[in-house]
């Protein structure tokens, strides 16, 4: 059964890169994976697939304005990565912004997720930093089987938690179950000081210039399939931690499946 994983975090925490990297790892066993975003400040499709030009007609926004969520209509809004046929992306495209569409409706988002769950193994939602401003993100954080929460190792990350977590106090958001990630760590990052304020994290991801540059170029995924493609030590360490994070996500999915089968 398909599983939905929400990636949420502070600005600059690398949540999008982390989300895409985990998605790629999940395809290693021929799992079919989609990464979805309705970010209107920085439309996601040109970020995920910088070498492809995608028309508005094939945007996620166009789909969510319709009433047809049959997979035959959804499928042409799934944009495959050129180097990985098991990985697809959905999002807004170049030129679209907050004025392009009316607010996306919760019931349509749920219909879309149900359609995708019948065809794909994993649905990864690249959430907006402020979920109350984005219905997809808010719905994902509520309905996801698991959420990965990323913050930066600095006061900005701490302040993000202090201002955003109180908005998700309802038990339906299951914030106590979030997989906690401290991301973009540099040698000078005050990791111990941050942990004293926030508690420990499940994963610690180093900042890698190599990973960042490859993501901007759209070649990060290809790099993860060839270990030697990562030129710096932090890139290799990052890849190792992402592999562990992907395994954790799969374990959560397997545990939830076992629970469902015994209910």
From TrEMBL:
User: Which protein, by its recorded name, is this?
Assistant: Cellulose biosynthesis protein BcsQ
Q: Where is the AAA domain?
A: 4-160
Which Pfam family, any one, appears in the UniProt record? AAA_31
Organism superkingdom: Bacteria
* Signal peptide (residue range): none
């Amino acid at each position: 059964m398909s599983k939905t994983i929400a990636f949420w975090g502070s600005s600059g925490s690398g949540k999008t890169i982390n989300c895409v990297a985990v998605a790629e790892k999940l395809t290693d066993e021929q799992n079919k994976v989609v990464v979805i975003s309705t970010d209107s400040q920085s439309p996601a499709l040109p970020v995920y697939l910088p070498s492809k030009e995608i028309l508005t007609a094939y945007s996620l926004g166009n789909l969510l304005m319709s009433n047809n969520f049959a997979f035959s209509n959804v499928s042409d809004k799934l944009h495959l990565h050129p180097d990985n046929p098991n990985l697809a992306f959905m999002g807004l495209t170049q030129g679209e912004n907050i004025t392009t569409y009316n607010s996306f409706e919760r019931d349509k988002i749920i219909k879309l997720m149900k359609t995708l769950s019948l065809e794909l193994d994993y649905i990864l939602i690249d959430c907006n930093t402020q979920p109350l401003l984005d219905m997809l993100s808010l719905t994902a954080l509520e309905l996801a089987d698991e959420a990965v929460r990323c913050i930066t190792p600095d006061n900005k990350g701490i302040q993000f938690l202090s201002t955003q977590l109180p908005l998700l106090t309802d038990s339906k958001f299951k914030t106590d179950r979030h997989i906690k990630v401290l991301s973009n760590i540099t040698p000078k990052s005050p990791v111990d000081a941050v942990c004293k304020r926030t508690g420990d994290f499940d994963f610690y991801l180093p900042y890698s210039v190599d990973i960042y540059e490859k993501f901007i170029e759209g070649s990060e995924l290809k790099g993860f399939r060839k270990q030697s493609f990562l030129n710096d030590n932090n890139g290799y360490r990052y890849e190792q931690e992402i592999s562990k994070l992907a395994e954790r996500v799969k374990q959560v999915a397997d545990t939830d499946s076992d629970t469902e089968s015994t209910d």
